[in-house]
Amino acid sequence: MSAGDGRAVLAPGLYFVATPLGNARDITLRALDILRDADVLAAEDTRTLRHLMEIHGIPLGGRRIVAYHDHNGPEARPRLLAFLREGRSVAYASEAGTPLVADPGFVLARAAIAEGLPVTTAPGPSAVVAALTIAGLPSDRFTFAGFPPNAAGPRRRFLAELAEAPGTLVLYESPKRVAATLAAAVEVLGGSRPAALCREITKKFEETRRGTLESLAEGAVADPPRGEIVLCIGEGTNEASEQELADALKEALASKPLKEAAREVADRFGVSRRDLYQMGLGFNSN
Questions:
Q1: Integer Rg of the chain from CA
Q2: Which residues, including other chains, have CB under 8 Å from residue 77's CB and lie 6 or more apart?
Q3: Residue ranges making up the domain that contains 174
Q4: For the segment 169-190, what is each residue's pLDDT rounded down to a tens digit?
Q5: Are 224 and 252 in contact (CB under 8 A)?
């Protein structure tokens, strides 16, 4: 069936559409169909959605994109709910990734569900899952905790509450605050925890820094990361005996200077680089 303007008829309901993290081709065919056929389009950032549709050749066809974000939710939400009550199809797209994951769509979803209105999803990219895929940390269990607080005290309390969280801990962070968050994580969670800092996933300057929290914290100061950041933190250290660490360090020292060898072994076993450096100095004194 056709809506009469080239669009197919889409069943009434609220459609949460996952959009690419960066690479515009990381969108599903179904998501493109929904954006083409929905009666109403809504987005966290209207410019981003408009640009994505232009890239994929999807015309607006006389439709306007309704802005829906944290600042205008109380005003825009009743309008979108009214469209749903009228039996229209409404597609909501986050700025990047999956709606409702660190995204203002949650309240809209709750409101629609409370009224018994149809709610479904067109799943796709998610920065949480993408980061877990490349972090090199266990992904069978993980805890996603969103953005840490900005202020130092609340940030430390936030991390302390997550210290015993099962599996890999996943956080979002801005480049301006990531150094402070890593420093707090070293203080609260322990610098020897294995971790990965994933930035600009799927984009031109994608980078994953792996190591201990201590090494990542030092790296964030020496070479501040830029762009969108996902921080993955392992549950704890990889258990290794002192003899195993000493043997691994001696092997690394056969071809590398002490500082580099200590970093390599620390990253491998998830232990303190400083402790391994001191161990290496002890080798030279014996």
A1: 24
A2: 68, 107, 108, 111
A3: 128-233
A4: 999 999 999 999 999 999 999 8
A5: no
